[in-house]
Amino acid sequence: MTAQNSGQTASPLRLGIAGLGTVGTGTVKIIQNHAALLAARSGRPVAITAVSARDRMKNRDVDLSAYAWEDDARALAVRDDVDVFVELVGGHEGVAREAVTAALRAGKDVVTANKALLAIHGQELAELADAEGRVLRFEAAVAGGIPVIKAMTESLAGNQIRRVMGVMNGTCNYILTRMESGGLPYEQVFEEARQLGYLEADPTLDVGGIDASHKLAILSAIAFGTRPAFGSVEIEGIERISIDDIRRAADMGYRIKLLGVAQMTGRGLEQRMSPCLVPADSPLGQLQGGTNMVVIEGDSVGQIVLRGAGAGEGPTASAVLSDIVEIARGVRIPAFGQPAQALSVPQAARTAVPAAYYIRLALADKPGALAKVASVLGEAGISIDRMRQYGKHDEEGVAPVLIVTHKTTPEAIDHAIAALPETGVIAGAPVELRIEEV
Ligand code: NAP
Ligand code: HSE
């Protein structure tokens, strides 16, 4: 064994960690608790030299006394005794962006868990890293502890990726599964999630589908060799999902998931994040609570399913450490799997891939009502696969009707949904959800 491999005499990899919240303290704990293991695996010691957060006096349940303290993460990023700047602050502007930029310019490698930063400024940062001969790694940014970035950039490097999809926001999956298991309305479970501390400081990042879309944009870039294109993800959150839809979907053999799907078609790059129906007995349908799942389809490998904890101190810090050890080993992989300049500008395309759809209507109980609905669908070129009318009429004399269509285009569905209220036989707005083949 060489000195480098023994982990005893090689020079330590010196870390500066900015952000000492959930992920930052988790990272410090692993480095403290697994020092020998990390040194053995890295071929050199992994040592923290300096840390930074907003409030120096805050009790963080971890001993920081051996490390230098910086009040400003940007100062930490350029310290001479830091080889790798570990950004665990968050946010796509301000301190995180400035400190990462400063670190790369100062010749530091960077590890971050910041999906918003990468989805929005990933191209500029990857180009800077390449220009400076540094690496920018972010395993923790997508799906927490699931090693999806390394799976895609390394293990699946020999594949043309056809499609990548998944449930990448644990909070939304928790809310949807808890609504179903408890028979509870959205508002009540949202409040429960808030009290459990699951929601981001700005909860619309979670329930509005934005956080998951940041992650999807990062995976798309790696999968298709394109610049991260968060701005062209079609995003819809879970706010309009009712307990009624969850129950009715279950009756028809489906579960509702906030599903991200990215695929390259003849028209361009389709990226969408939206609540979809998936078969209840499929791996995605079975996914409970805060767990994440990413499904990758490659031309040679077929379908790969990765499942695990998508958030939390331990799982996310585990992913941060995988990047740190990779750098300590001397492995240097371009941010999105190829030099940033070689990433193409994607042609953004609205989703056009046909799918079956679930439609829920409140239908007036009068002669010819159903025929009018069928006629609107027929005129839009939509064929009905299954239909169910529930006998229970409310005080307005309307009854819920569920329709599952044969495969059709999103354009045809939009057209039909816009036309349905004009029939005069439905109350309220119809609900439509795509049924994704998984
Ligand atoms: P957090 O618990 O809110 O911690 C944020 C840390 O950043 C805190 O220590 C805070 O300091 C520090 N900070 C905030 N503003 C700062 C500033 N202007 N200058 C210096 N330090 C500042 O956040 P987190 O959950 O650990 O998330 C960190 C990153 O990991 C984010 O990018 C997040 O999206 C990502 N991530 C999180 C998870 C998760 O499960 N939590 C999973 C995947 C990825 P104080 O402690 O002094 O306030
Ligand atoms: N808010 C995110 C989630 C945290 O719920 O999945 C992990 O990125």
Q: Using the coordinates above, name the CATH class of the largest domain.
A: Alpha Beta
What small molecules does the structure contain? NADP nicotinamide-adenine-dinucleotide phosphate, L-homoserine
Query: Averaged pLDDT, please?
Result: 94
Anisotropy-based shape: elongated
Range of helix content: 25-40%
Radius of gyration in whole Å, from Cα? 24 Å
Largest sheet: 10 strands, mixed
Q: So, CATH architecture of the largest domain?
A: 2-Layer Sandwich
Number of domains: 3
CATH superfamily of the largest domain: Dihydrodipicolinate Reductase, domain 2
* Beginning-to-end CA distance, first to last residue: 47 Å
Number of helices: 15
Output the CATH topology of the largest domain.
Dihydrodipicolinate Reductase, domain 2
Quantity of strands, as a count: 16
Pathway: Amino-acid biosynthesis; L-methionine biosynthesis via de novo pathway; L-homoserine from L-aspartate: step 3/3; Amino-acid biosynthesis; L-threonine biosynthesis; L-threonine from L-aspartate: step 3/5
GO molecular function: homoserine dehydrogenase activity; NADP binding
EC number: 1.1.1.3
Pfam family, one: NAD_binding_3
In a nutshell, what does this entry contain?
The chain is of the alpha/beta class. The chain has helices spanning 3-6, 22-33, 35-42, 73-77, 94-105, 115-132, 148-155, 170-182, 186-195, 204-207, 210-224, 243-251, 313-328, 369-379, 410-419; strands at residues 13-18, 46-52, 68-70, 84-87, 109-112, 136-137, 161-167, 234-235, 254-265, 268-279, 291-298, 302-309, 356-364, 384-389, 398-405, 426-435. It folds into three domains: 13-141, NAD(P)-binding Rossmann-like Domain (Rossmann fold); 148-309, 2-Layer Sandwich (Dihydrodipicolinate Reductase, domain 2), CATH 3.30.360; 356-435, Alpha-Beta Plaits (2-Layer Sandwich).
